[in-house]
């Protein structure tokens, strides 16, 4: 029985795709996922950030920068990522443009800049929940002709939570790579469908028996850190949603208070105008009543909004901090 390390975690991901002694694995994976064929096929690679390929006891997010050359001799950079991060779609642009810009050195020709492809693999969340496909490749196209004129940046995304094929359903090499990434740690033998050399090499690279005691310790420690980070980020997102809901509720309460104040002010103005029995008096009374009603309604609405927000915040924050945020006194808050 074989125990496979989980490539969805950084240490194993680096072992699998960032090792110099089995670049064939990385080349085969990239050609398959990015759908390269013919002259587009990657034939050689080198890792640009060698210092980042080393196993890192700090458990940092994986980023592998791979310099690629295809059959025609064209060169480009692929940045491979495996992480859980909030606002991930926004961060992809930052990573890609940063990698592209860092190529440029003052005095160098712009023609030396190579296209950048960011390939990101998500393991515990979906970036585009409404998209059914587990893989999407995004390029900058002309909105009318769909021509790909600006070829400096491409974003490719694989959302593993959307991939649900079983071993019996694997047909294409892409199926097999994604199954390996998602499920190999739950297997105890090399799946029969993973019968190509690159899959066999990948399974061997993830076989715990081939790892040193130190590498296993680093893997286990970093895995726990990643799990804790992912749990914290999910919790923060949930808290943020709760706070947004509380603010929305408070805003609605404020608007409702203003509306009631307006109605009350108009009623007072009408009553006063009728008592005077004069059109001018009625107008003045209405104006004064509306004005007074606005003041009273706004004040009442603002206080109601603050009280509603305070009740929500008190469940999560110290009373002094809530007082600072809402402007209410500690004494008033204690009465809630």
Give the helix proportion (percent range).
Answer: 40-55%
The biggest beta sheet is recorded as: 6 strands, mixed
Spatial order of the strands forming the largest sheet: 1-2-3-4-6-5
Order of helices and strands: HHEHEEHEEEHHHHHH
Uncertain ranges: 50-60
The rounded distance between the terminal residues' Cα atoms is 61 Å
- Assess the beta-strand content as a share of residues: 5-15%
The geometry reads as elongated
Mean pLDDT: 80
Number of helices: 10
* Class by alpha and beta content: alpha/beta
**Tally of DSSP β-strands:** 6
Radius of gyration: 30 Å
Instruction: Quickly count the domains.
Output: 2
Question: Could you explain the architecture of this structure?
Answer:
With 336 residues, the protein is α/β, with parallel strands linked by helices. The protein has 2 domains: 202 residues, no CATH class; 98 residues, no CATH class. 51% of the residues lie in helices and 12% in strands. The protein contains 10 helices and 6 strands. It has a 6-stranded mixed β-sheet with strand order 1-2-3-4-6-5, with helices on both faces. Helix 4 links the parallel strand 3 and strand 4. The longest helix has 64 residues. It starts with 9 loop residues before the first helix and ends with a helix. About 3% of the residues have low confidence.
Any key phrases for this structure?
336 residues; alpha/beta; 2 domains; six-stranded mixed sheet
């Amino acid at each position: 029985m074989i125990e496979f390390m989980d490539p969805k975690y950084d240490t194993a991901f680096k072992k699998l795709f960032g090792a110099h002694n089995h670049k064939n694995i990385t080349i085969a994976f990239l050609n398959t996922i990015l759908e390269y064929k013919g002259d587009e096929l990657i034939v050689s690679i080198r890792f640009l950030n060698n210092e980042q390929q080393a196993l890192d006891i700090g458990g940092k997010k994986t980023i592998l920068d791979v310099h690629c050359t295809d059959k025609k001799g064209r060169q480009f950079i692929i940045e491979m990522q495996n992480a859980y991060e909030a606002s991930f779609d926004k961060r992809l642009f930052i990573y890609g443009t940063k990698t592209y810009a860092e190529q440029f050195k003052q005095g160098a020709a712009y023609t030396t800049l190579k296209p950048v492809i960011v390939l990101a693999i998500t393991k515990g969340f979906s970036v585009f929940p409404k998209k059914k496909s587990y893989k999407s490749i995004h390029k900058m196209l002309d909105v009318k002709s769909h021509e790909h004129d600006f070829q400096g940046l491409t974003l490719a995304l694989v959302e593993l939570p959307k991939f649900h094929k079983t071993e019996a359903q694997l047909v294409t090499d892409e199926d097999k790579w994604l199954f390996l990434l998602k499920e190999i740690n739950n297997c105890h033998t090399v799946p029969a469908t993973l019968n190509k050399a690159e899959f066999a090499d990948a399974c061997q690279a993830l076989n715990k028996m081939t790892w040193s005691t130190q590498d296993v310790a680093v893997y286990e420690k970093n895995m726990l850190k990643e799990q804790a980070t992912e749990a914290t980020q999910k919790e923060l997102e949930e808290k943020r949603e709760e706070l947004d809901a509380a603010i929305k509720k408070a805003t609605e309460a404020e608007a409702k208070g203003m509306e009631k104040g307006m109605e009350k002010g108009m009623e007072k103005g009408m009553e006063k105008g009728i008592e005077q029995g004069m059109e001018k008096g009625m107008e003045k009374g209405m104006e004064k009543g509306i004005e007074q009603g606005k003041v009273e309604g706004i004040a009442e609405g603002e206080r109601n909004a603050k009280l509603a927000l305070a009740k929500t915040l008190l469940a999560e924050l110290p009373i002094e901090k809530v007082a600072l945020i809402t402007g209410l006194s500690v004494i008033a808050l204690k009465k809630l």
